[in-house]
Amino acid sequence: MQNTDIPQACTKRCYEVTRSNLPLSCPLPDMRLWDAHPRVYLPIEATGHVICPYCEAEFILKNE
Q: Which sign does the torsion angle of CA 59, 22, 30, 34 carry?
Protein backbone atom coordinates (compact mmCIF):
# COMPACT_ATOMS: atom_id res chain seq x y z
CA MET A 1 0.00 0.00 0.00
CA GLN A 2 1.32 3.42 -0.98
CA ASN A 3 1.55 6.30 1.54
CA THR A 4 -0.13 9.31 -0.09
CA ASP A 5 0.75 11.70 2.76
CA ILE A 6 4.33 12.06 1.54
CA PRO A 7 4.62 14.15 -1.63
CA GLN A 8 5.94 12.41 -4.71
CA ALA A 9 9.39 13.69 -5.62
CA CYS A 10 10.23 15.75 -8.67
CA THR A 11 6.68 16.40 -9.82
CA LYS A 12 6.55 20.15 -9.38
CA ARG A 13 8.67 22.26 -11.69
CA CYS A 14 9.43 25.21 -9.36
CA TYR A 15 10.02 25.22 -5.61
CA GLU A 16 10.43 28.20 -3.30
CA VAL A 17 12.78 27.39 -0.43
CA THR A 18 14.11 29.31 2.56
CA ARG A 19 17.39 29.26 4.46
CA SER A 20 15.83 26.67 6.79
CA ASN A 21 15.99 24.24 3.82
CA LEU A 22 19.79 24.58 3.55
CA PRO A 23 21.78 22.64 2.63
CA LEU A 24 19.42 22.24 -0.31
CA SER A 25 18.95 18.84 -1.85
CA CYS A 26 16.75 17.47 -4.60
CA PRO A 27 14.56 15.69 -3.88
CA LEU A 28 13.71 17.67 -0.76
CA PRO A 29 13.87 15.71 2.52
CA ASP A 30 10.07 15.60 2.92
CA MET A 31 9.59 13.90 -0.47
CA ARG A 32 9.60 10.22 -1.26
CA LEU A 33 13.09 9.32 -2.38
CA TRP A 34 12.52 5.78 -3.58
CA ASP A 35 10.78 6.85 -6.82
CA ALA A 36 13.03 9.79 -7.65
CA HIS A 37 16.56 10.31 -8.86
CA PRO A 38 19.53 10.03 -6.48
CA ARG A 39 19.70 12.81 -3.89
CA VAL A 40 21.91 15.65 -5.08
CA TYR A 41 22.93 18.72 -3.09
CA LEU A 42 22.47 22.01 -4.91
CA PRO A 43 24.52 25.21 -4.38
CA ILE A 44 21.84 27.89 -4.12
CA GLU A 45 23.38 30.25 -1.55
CA ALA A 46 25.45 32.40 -3.93
CA THR A 47 22.85 33.11 -6.62
CA GLY A 48 19.50 32.41 -4.93
CA HIS A 49 18.51 30.23 -7.86
CA VAL A 50 19.47 26.74 -9.05
CA ILE A 51 18.17 24.03 -11.39
CA CYS A 52 18.49 20.34 -10.58
CA PRO A 53 20.70 18.57 -13.14
CA TYR A 54 18.60 15.39 -12.90
CA CYS A 55 14.97 16.51 -13.09
CA GLU A 56 15.36 20.17 -14.09
CA ALA A 57 13.30 21.33 -11.10
CA GLU A 58 13.92 25.00 -10.39
CA PHE A 59 14.64 26.19 -6.84
CA ILE A 60 14.33 29.82 -5.75
CA LEU A 61 15.68 31.01 -2.40
CA LYS A 62 13.13 33.27 -0.71
CA ASN A 63 14.08 36.00 1.73
CA GLU A 64 12.59 35.28 5.13
A: positive
Between the two ends of the chain, the Cα-to-Cα distance in Å is 38
Domain ranges, residue 53: 14-61
The reported pTM is 0.77
Number of domains in the chain: 1
Asked if residue 18 is part of any domain, the answer here is yes
What tens digit of pLDDT does each residue of 2-44 get? Answer: 555 766 666 668 999 999 999 999 998 888 777 788 999 999 9
How are beta strands 24-26 and 40-42 bridged, if at all? antiparallel
Q: How far is CA 17 from CA 1, 2, 6, in A?
A: 30, 27, 18
